[in-house]
Amino acid sequence: MDIKLLTTRTCHCSNIEQELRDLALRYERCYVEEHPELVARFNVRHCPVLIIDETRIIPVDGLTEGQIRTLIDQG
């Protein structure tokens, strides 16, 4: 599974990253400032979001570890 965490340089998403690590999920952090093509391609309006296998977008701001796992597993 290819997971990208799309965020901004000013986003406070350290708890999302900790939850991904606790779930033993490997991910790549991508900043919107450096990857405007991802923002355009997936029509991202708010961050942070997870991009799963280049096909699914999951808004993750404020989600718990269990909620993230459920959403990823639904794919």
Describe this structure in words.
The protein has 75 residues and is of the alpha+beta class. The chain contains 3 helices and 4 strands; from the N terminus they run βαβαββα. It has helices spanning 14-22, 36-41, 65-73; strands at residues 3-7, 28-31, 49-52, 56-59. The chain has a 4-stranded mixed sheet with strand order 2-1-3-4. α1 (14-22) links the parallel β1 (3-7) and β2 (28-31). The longest helix is centred in the N-terminal third of the chain and has 9 residues, at 14-22. The relative contact order is 0.26. The model has no long low-confidence stretch (mean pLDDT 91).
- Placed side by side, the strands forming the largest sheet appear as 2-1-3-4
Q: What's the number of helices?
A: 3
The SSE order reads EHEHEEH
Number of strands: 4
- Amount of beta strand: 15-25%
* Biggest pleated sheet: 4 strands, mixed
Q: What structural category characterises the helix and strand content?
A: alpha+beta
Poorly predicted tracts of residues: none
- Could you tell me the radius of gyration in angstroms? 11 Å
**Average pLDDT value?**
91
Distance between the termini: 10 Å
Q: Please give the share of residues in helix.
A: 25-40%
User: What is the molecular shape?
Assistant: globular
